[in-house]
UniProtKB/TrEMBL annotation:
This is Aminotransferase class III-fold pyridoxal phosphate-dependent enzyme. It comes from Psychromarinibacter sediminicola. Keywords: Aminotransferase, Pyridoxal phosphate, Transferase. InterPro entries: Aminotrans_3, Aminotrans_3_PPA_site, PyrdxlP-dep_Trfase, PyrdxlP-dep_Trfase_major, PyrdxlP-dep_Trfase_small. Belongs to the class-III pyridoxal-phosphate-dependent aminotransferase family. It comes from the Bacteria. Pfam families: Aminotran_3. Its cofactor is pyridoxal 5'-phosphate.
Length: 462
């Protein structure tokens, strides 16, 4: 590690952080006895903390974001050049990287046509929700305004995104919520809801359950269905074959817009540009954020079909016809400038192919861990987006205690590997170790990650 900061500077940083930063998703009481970890530098798949310790980052910046890895000079150079020339312009006027990235992105998304820029996954999803509501208001007399979302999916942190989110723990304490969001069942076959079917038939059955909700609510009241292609924070849930074709059929049958939340899967995570492309889905909305610029700049996109876009142009004389929405920092050029380079890197370095090959290796290693450790109840994954569900008992599938799950993560950290764990305190849900290394991972990296998990599981569970 080659740091410009001295040891003194770094201990000051730790003290400043401790005194002033409110960290995400953490009980701060713990920082009375341990220091917060400050990540100081990253290169490729590796990061270094303030104490100079090196880690393999198996979750791409804690939340599956840094798809092309750390320390990419060409992204930094492109952003620098762009922001010196023109850093920001918002509203009705465009920017050079905004136009060029939209063009490049849509080349990878046949059937899609328009890109609406904002800054976070939550915001991208809110934009789509607002578009659905406006389509309902203008074209369906305000009737088709309900938005369906799935148990265990997550779409963001705003009040409306929480209303459309399937993880109850995140919602408790933040109500009241806006109306018109309706839940459909999840499709995690390991935790079966329909015992008489399996495989593709299970997928079709889980999709049929969506149709049942639509019929119960009244198809003419349902405007959209919002789903993650592979559920991320809800437990790395890969739907069985049979699920997506049936979902598509149902949406078409009832004239329901299909919104795919690609905030995690987008830009290569599952070995295709987008998760939905694994199943030949034809969405009406696609939202994306994390991997779009791999965290080098904040950018998110709400992408629509031309058909959706046209619905906002029906009456040029009517000032209520266009999308009455703006995101100030959707006018930052750093995002699309970084995103253009990010895409070029994925393409030029063949990272989709590497993702598939390394994903296969990772799944193989995880399957071996399942053979060895009774606590590993299920392993799931698509590309470099993998999970290992931990259960205290394979028969009852009772999740392991939260303290044990935390201990596994800490033991991996002690072995120099940063991993994640999902939903550990959600009652009735799953405790799943989460792995999403950068798409540049090598076989040695993959093996080092699973070796650390192996050691951690032995240490914690024997
Ligand atoms: N959708 C999904 C599937 C996510 O995983 C997340 C973030 N974890 C979001 C939306 C929200 O993104 P952000 O945190 O950028 O608002």
């Amino acid at each position: 590690m080659n740091l410009d900061l001295t040891k003194n500077d770094l201990s000051h940083v730790v003290e400043a952080d401790k005194a002033h930063v409110w960290h995400h998703l953490v009980q701060h009481k713990q920082f009375e006895t341990v220091d917060p970890k400050i990540i100081v530098e990253g290169k490729g798949l590796r990061v270094w903390d303030a104490a100079g310790r090196e880690y393999i980052d198996a979750v791409s910046g804690a939340v599956w974001t840094v798809n092309v890895g750390y320390g990419r000079a060409r992204i930094a150079d492109a952003v620098r050049d762009q922001i010196l020339r023109m850093n920001f312009f918002a509203g009705a006027m465009g920017t050079v990287p905004g136009a060029l990235f939209a063009e490049r992105l849509l080349e990878k998304m046949p059937g899609m046509s328009r890109v609406y820029y904002s800054n976070s996954g939550s915001e991208a999803n809110e934009k789509a929700f607002k578009m659905v509501r406006q389509i309902s208001a203008r074209h369906y007399g305000g009737k088709k305004q309900k938005i369906l979302y799935r148990d265990r999916d997550y779409h963001g942190t705003t009040i409306a995104c929480l209303a459309g989110g399937g993880q109850d723990e995140r919602n408790a304490q933040y109500g009241p919520f806006p109306e018109g969001f309706v839940r459909v069942p999840h499709c995690l076959e390991y935790r079966k809801q329909w015992d008489d079917v399996s495989g593709a038939a299970y997928g079709r059955r889980a999709a049929d359950a969506i149709e049942e909700v639509i019929l119960r609510e009244g198809p003419d009241t349902v405007g959209a269905l919002c789903l993650e292609p592979v559920t991320a924070g809800g437990g790395v849930i890969v739907p069985p074959e049979g699920y997506w074709p049936r979902v598509q059929e149902i949406c078409r049958k009832y004239d329901i817009l299909l919104h795919i939340d690609e905030v995690v899967c987008g830009l290569g995570r599952t070995g295709t540009w987008f998760g939905y492309q694994n199943w030949g889905v034809e969405p009406d909305f696609v939202t994306m954020a994390k991997g779009v610029a791999s965290g080098y700049a904040a950018i998110s996109c709400t992408v629509t079909t031309e058909k959706v876009f046209e619905m906002f142009k029906d009456d040029a004389e009517d000032p209520m016809s266009y999308f009455r929405d703006i995101s100030t920092f959707g006018g930052c050029t750093a995002g699309p400038a970084a995103a253009l380079e990010n895409m070029a890197i994925i393409e030029e370095e063949g990272l989709l192919d590497n993702c598939l090959a390394m994903g296969e290796r990772l799944m193989g290693n995880l399957a071996a861990l399942k053979e060895k450790h009774a606590v590993v109840g299920d392993v799931r994954g698509k590309g470099l987006f993998c999970g290992a569900e931990l259960v205290a008992d394979r028969e009852t599938k009772e999740p392991v205690a939260e303290a044990d799950a935390k201990a596994v993560v800490a033991e991996c950290m002690a072995r120099g590997v940063i991993i994640g764990v999902t939903n550990r305190s959600l009652p009735g849900m799953n405790t799943t170790l989460c792995l999403s290394p950068a798409l540049i991972a090598t076989p040695q990296d993959i093996d080092a990650i699973t070796a650390a998990i192996d050691g951690a599981l032995t240490k914690v569970f024997g």
